[in-house]
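Re-run with default settings, no changes from the original entry. Doing this only to confirm the output is reproducible before filing.
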Amino acid sequence: MASLDKDLDPVLDKDGVRLTVDDAIATVTLTNAAKRNAQSPALWRALTEAGRSLPGTVRVVVLRAEGKSFSAGLDRQAFTPEGFDGEPSFIDLARGTDADLDATIAEYQEAFTWWRRSDVVSIAAVQGHAIGAGFQLALACDLRVVADDVQFAMRETSLGLVPDLTGTHPLVGLVGYARALEICATGRFVAAEEAERTGLANLAVAAGELDDAVRDLAAALLAAPRDAVIETKALLRGARERTYEEQRRAERAAQARRLRDLAGAGD
């Protein structure tokens, strides 16, 4: 598919991650197509760095991947005794203290947390396989546009593990507890039609139309004033934790801020 960051100078390009910025739109691209964008601690650190490198002009962040697969998940080298060069193996981590293991997993999770920050809207453009950590990376974004060949799967449970890269919260929020449990416990594939029908995907399109669909969505998101989008995102993000009356109060407070800002702009 055609690149969303073609001809742009990268802000960051390392360890299988490239970040480019075109005014209000940033594109984060997974670039290790030869390994189906399998993930590693180095890639996670690069994703975290990409989030910290976003200029203040950015309003929309697109996450995409080169090649036929979005991400095949965790690089299986992590489970070998030698692990990755310069990294503790997962076997070594398991032998460490609970505090050290918790701190390491928390560091890995940082690559998945910044996509939902309040000042940007993130869109995952997903084609082919998005398995395990790949599925969770797509779930980390606010919105998902998928190609008709997409194959989501949460395979951690079948490996004797649990999904621990922040994917469980958005998955339950999108499809509900029962379906989320079934998806995770069976490790089965979720294809494009089911993803769109159940809310995992906002839109499913032909593979050749994926970039164009994402561009159109990004343009639509940029049409509204930035502060109004930020306030609306905060209202919606907090709605599940608030009661109906608390949400009413939050709406009033947010609208009061917007009206005051608009009135001040007209002075």
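The chain is about 45% helix and 15% strand. The mean pLDDT is 94.
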